[in-house]
Each structure stands twice: as C-alpha cells, then as structure tokens.
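Data availability excerpt. The first of two example chains:
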Amino acid sequence: MAKFRLDETDHHILDMLIENTRTPFTDIAKRLNISAGTVHVRVKKMEEAGIILGSTLSLNYEKLGYAFIAYVGIFLKNTSQTKFVLERINEIPFVTVAHVTTGKFNIFCKIRARDTHHAKDVIFQLDDIEGVYRTETMISLEESINDKKRLMHSIFKTI
C-alpha cells in the first residue's frame, strides 16, 4: 500500500478540524478558497488512509464538576495479570486513560474526579483490583500544555 502524501491544503484542513471538529466543510472551503466538494473528498481520503480516525468532542469537565485530575501508577503482582487488571480498570468510568507502560509502573492511568474525596474512592477501587500490588498517585495542579497542533505541525515539517 502506497504511503498517503499530505499537501499544504490537507495540512490546512487538518489544522482547522483540530481546532474545531464541527467546522463545516463549506467554511473550510471558503477560508482556503476551494470547493466544499474538494474538502469533502480530501477528508474522505484521509479517513480511508487512516490519518483521520474520527472526530471528538471536547468537554469542559470543570463546568461539569470534574475538575480534579490525578495520575495513578499501578504496580502489578505479575505482568501476566495485565489484561485482567485492564478489564477491571475499564469498569471504573472515572479512569479516562490507561497505558501499559515500561519503567516504574506496569499501568499508568489518568482519573477525573469531583474532588479529593471522590479521587480517594477511585484510587481505592484501583487498589482493590485483584493483581494490583500497590499504586502511586500524582495530583495534577494544572494542565499547562494540551496542544495537538504543535505536534502535527512538527510532523508536517518532516514529511
């Protein structure tokens, strides 16, 4: 399968969609001085090539009452329990991200909670999973960088 090549127009389309996935193709077309059909075709090709995997909706969790963020490193008794533990973690809706990792932790999770009391309950749920040896928690004081565009622009410079 040939590698899909992105051009400047594709880069601009992705730039606008990363900024707001709900931007109408007609608005993108007007800003780029191309037809909406061209935008549609290019987005479709990027989806078919697996470059665009879908679109997401960003929520303001603080306004929803879930501003508390913590990261929990999980140590397992045995690495053979990874799949089982991940299945149990997946049952806890306040764990929003989980990575199998190398290094200090076997699994590294991001949790969202209402406050410290709620976070404690979530962390205790993680601790209680069979196969978890112990956990180590870090509290996020502030999300200082969350910028998908910088990485995308860096990638564009190398391809």
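And the second chain:
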Amino acid sequence: MAKLEQYRAFVQQLIKQYGAYKPSYGDIEVETVFDTERDHYELINVGWHEHRRIRGAVLHIDIKNGKIWIQHDGTERGVANDLVEWGVPKEDIVLAFHAPYRRQYTGFAVN
C-alpha cells in the first residue's frame, strides 16, 4: 500500500509540475484533473489561439495493478524519465501509448 501511495504522490507531483507551464501563445487554460478514487490523472490544455480551438491532453497517466501506465505523454522530455529519476523501477512503468507488441522493446514494463 505504501508503494501505491508513493506512486500517486509522484504522478500528482508530475502533473502539477508540468501544469505550472502555460503555453506561450493564445488564451489557453491549463487544467489538472485528479481522480484519486479510480487513479486517473490528466493535464489538459483548453482555450483559443487566434480563431482556432485548442483542447486536449498533455499528459494522461493511470495507476493500474500497482503500476504507472503512461497513456499519453505530450512532453518533450518524457515523464517516464522523471519517474525513473525519482526511484520508480522501469518494471513498474508501462508506456501504454505504445502498442502492446512493441512494449517489450521499450525497456519498461509490458503490462
């Protein structure tokens, strides 16, 4: 249980950290979404740039079966690297944005 609580804290810290950066263009709001009951976490941009609607996830991370599942990572650095630096073992991180058959080549968990 302590591991799960630690992973929740890491994921929330990541979302908050990346959520502190506001896009340099447009009238964009950065929203953090934490569903701690079901372990779904997102960072979303929503707003307008000139006449174009901007909306979508920057980060989407779930915690399932004791592992951190990165569903979408729109960062340049890659949040899996942050998690590894913070001590999360690679076998507890799933790069879910890769097809299941490709995950075996990532160096991270398959599922």
